[in-house]
TrEMBL record:
It comes from Flavivirga spongiicola. Residues 114-223 form the Phosphatidic acid phosphatase type 2/haloperoxidase domain. This is Phosphatase PAP2 family protein. It comes from the Bacteria. Gene3D superfamilies: Phosphatidic acid phosphatase type 2/haloperoxidase.
Length: 259
């Protein structure tokens, strides 16, 4: 694929980036049709891990809600605002605008990755919330209460939309850094949103876990597509990229990143 040059105009660069974003979205939605045995094995492991985690959803939610009075307001406010669609898209628009005007290819590529991934994850979580109709913790129901295809906001818990947006941007940005501590710092800031949602009692542990898994899977898929098609002069070598693996035992589920 022919890449843009530094001599290209801002309009040409914007057109090129828009094309890559659309191709990234197409790739992420059609990728499941090309899954192999290992991909279905991973899906099965994720499903089993979420099922195991669901056994402590009620106790876990009750624990976080009890801690809310001791959580600083600034933490909760930051989590709510950063995970909102308005702030999310304003932040990415600013990031892309800066990269476009300065013709910084790495920033443009990062923003295209975020746009493609967030469009995909956004549609997935919006459809899933309505389809599953899972109740939110603070409504007095058990975590097993579902009202399929419900239009009521209190039954739009699974998965966490704030987590999806936050972790999509967090993972996309963290992938652009080689330094381990830079990655740790970025993921730490990104985790504020999902954790704040647990304290607020608006999501269960499995809501946050699934939102995180969806974000990581989609971002990795789109990023690999952009890398393989050589859409941008990627300065981060493949060997330096973070590798994520799902790990679960009994009623515990975790995501391990290998730098």
């Amino acid at each position: 694929m022919k890449k843009t040059k530094d001599t290209a105009s801002v309009i040409q660069l914007a057109g090129y980036d828009a094309k890559q974003a659309l191709l990234g979205i197409k790739h992420s939605f059609t990728r499941p049709f090309h899954w192999k045995k290992k991909d279905f094995t991973t899906l099965g492991a994720i499903s089993l891990g979420l099922f195991g985690l669901s056994t402590i959803d009620d106790e876990g939610s009750a624990f976080f809600i009890r801690q809310e009075p001791y959580v600083p307001n600034v933490f909760q406010e930051a989590g709510t605002r950063f995970g909102s669609p308005q702030v999310y898209f304003i932040a990415n628009a600013g990031l892309y605008g800066f990269g476009l005007l300065t013709k910084n290819e790495k920033i443009r590529k990062t923003s295209v990755l975020i746009i493609s991934s967030s469009f995909t994850t956004g549609l997935i979580q919006s459809f899933s919330k309505t389809a599953f109709g899972r109740v939110r913790p603070k409504n007095g129901y058990k975590s097993t209460e579902f009202r399929f295809w419900s239009k009521e906001p209190q039954f739009h818990s699974f998965p966490s939309g704030h987590t999806v947006l936050s972790m999509t941007m967090t993972h996309a940005i963290a992938k652009q850094f080689d330094n381990v501590w830079s990655k740790v710092g970025i993921y730490t800031l990104g985790s504020i949103v999902p954790i704040s949602r647990l304290f607020a009692g608006v999501h269960w542990l499995t809501d946050v876990a699934l939102g995180t898994v969806i974000s990581i899977a989609v971002v990795d898929s789109v990023d690999k597509f952009l890398f393989n098609t050589k859409a941008y002069n990627d300065s981060v070598k493949e060997k330096n990229r973070i590798s994520w693996k799902l790990h679960f035992t009994g009623n515990k589920i975790g995501i391990i990143g290998v730098f």
